[in-house]
Every structure is written in structure tokens, then in C-alpha cells.
């Protein structure tokens, strides 16, 4: 076997191994995900999931779980002065949230809340535009939380203590929710990484006729965002 043939064989072997790894990595994620809201749901209409989600499928470093969804905000002025629930894992009175995604009471910001054994941690995501679909992913490990906006890591937040999971179901649009829509809400028993989040973004919500005929595209463009 000459040198060229040997090099080609090595390259082919590396490619095959890469495909095998990718396949099983994807299979692991798919086997641990639970679809809570599949189609587009009205942000003002409360949805109470009956699905009992299993707790974290602990990985080598410890606890790990993730949530991902698409959100579109039509009007941040709706219910001005009151926080607006996009979704929460916990009771509807918000006494336990692991996690919760809300809209800020007075600004165009997302608020991510996470219960830990040291208290509830609150992380704002600023300058969210209206009338554009935005993909949000929240990946939680035993010691940190990663927040992705449209596949880009917005923040790696170190938790002060271990997340305090609860056995409640997931609720969206609690008490009138928000003026907008939510779609593709999923729970994962694993820690999503950048490649998995990027893959989830390929499954975009169906745009409305208003989106199609509108003056601006319905999907999020990072050039519109000055949150960082």
C-alpha cells in the first residue's frame, strides 16, 4: 500500500467515525427530548401541559437539562407594568420556577428565572425586538446556565448553588401571558450544546400571511439586536 492510498484510507476512516459520532449524539438528544408545544400557540391563551417530565438525566459532571422554544412578541406594551409569562416549569403562582421565561414588566427584555438551593436567580436578556421570531434555548448544568438567542450563546451564567428542580408540569401564557406567540417548546434531559441548539433552529415556525406580506422579514436577524 503506497503513501497516497494510506492517507486516503485514514481520511475516509476519520469521516466515517465522525458520521457515526454525529448519528449517536443526535440519537441521544432525540431520545431525551419531550415536545410540550409543537405548533404555534397564542401567547395570551394559557396552556397547562399534562405531561409529567422526568428529571435531569445526570451526565458525568452531574445534573443537566435544557429547554428550547420559538417566541414572537407583537407588543411589549401589553399588560405594561406586570411581568408576562412565556413559560414556566412550576406552579402557576410562580412560587417555584425551574426554569421560567418571562417578559419584563416595563422593558423589551426577556427575564430568565431559575430556582436554586440558594434562592431564585434572575437573568435579563435585553433589547429584544418586536414582531420577529426569536429562538431561545436554556441549557442548565449543576453549576451553570447557558442562554442562547438564535443559536448564539448570549450568556454563560455561573449559578450560586445547585438548581432546585420541581415535579410540576409546564405552563405557558399564565394569566393572560403576553401579546405574541410561542412555538416548538421542548424539554431535554441533557445539556444542549451549540451544535444541538443550531440544529433545533432549522425547524422554524410557519410564518403567517401577515409575515409573508409584511415589510420586514419574520425571522430574527442578529443585525437587529443590540443586546450585547
Automatic annotation (TrEMBL):
Keywords: Membrane, Transmembrane, Transmembrane helix. The chain crosses the membrane at residues 6-24. The keyword Transmembrane applies. This is LamG-like jellyroll fold domain-containing protein. It comes from viral metagenome. The keyword Membrane applies. Pfam families: Laminin_G_3 (PF13385).
Amino acid at each position: 500500500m503506497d503513501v497516497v492510498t494510506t492517507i486516503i484510507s485514514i481520511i475516509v476512516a476519520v469521516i466515517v467515525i465522525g458520521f457515526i459520532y454525529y448519528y449517536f449524539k443526535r440519537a441521544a438528544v432525540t431520545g431525551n427530548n419531550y415536545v410540550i408545544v409543537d405548533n404555534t400557540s397564542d401567547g395570551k391563551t394559557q396552556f397547562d401541559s399534562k405531561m409529567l417530565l422526568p428529571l435531569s438525566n445526570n451526565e458525568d459532571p452531574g445534573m443537566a437539562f435544557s429547554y428550547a422554544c420559538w417566541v414572537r412578541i407583537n407588543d411589549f406594551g401589553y399588560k405594561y407594568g406586570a411581568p408576562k409569562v412565556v413559560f414556566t416549569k412550576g406552579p402557576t403562582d410562580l412560587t417555584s420556577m425551574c426554569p421560567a421565561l418571562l417578559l419584563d414588566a416595563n422593558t423589551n427584555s426577556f427575564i430568565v428565572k431559575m430556582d436554586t438551593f440558594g434562592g431564585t436567580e434572575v437573568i435579563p436578556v435585553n433589547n429584544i425586538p418586536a414582531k420577529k421570531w426569536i429562538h431561545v434555548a436554556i441549557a442548565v448544568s449543576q453549576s451553570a446556565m447557558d442562554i442562547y438567542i438564535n443559536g448564539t450563546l448570549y450568556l454563560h451564567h455561573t449559578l450560586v448553588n445547585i438548581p432546585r428542580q420541581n415535579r410540576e408540569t409546564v405552563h405557558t401564557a399564565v394569566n393572560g401571558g403576553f401579546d405574541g406567540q410561542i412555538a416548538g417548546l421542548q424539554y431535554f434531559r441533557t445539556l444542549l450544546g451549540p451544535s444541538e441548539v443550531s440544529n433545533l433552529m432549522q425547524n422554524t415556525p410557519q410564518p403567517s400571511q401577515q409575515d409573508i406580506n409584511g415589510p420586514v422579514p419574520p425571522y430574527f436577524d442578529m443585525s437587529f439586536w443590540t443586546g450585547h
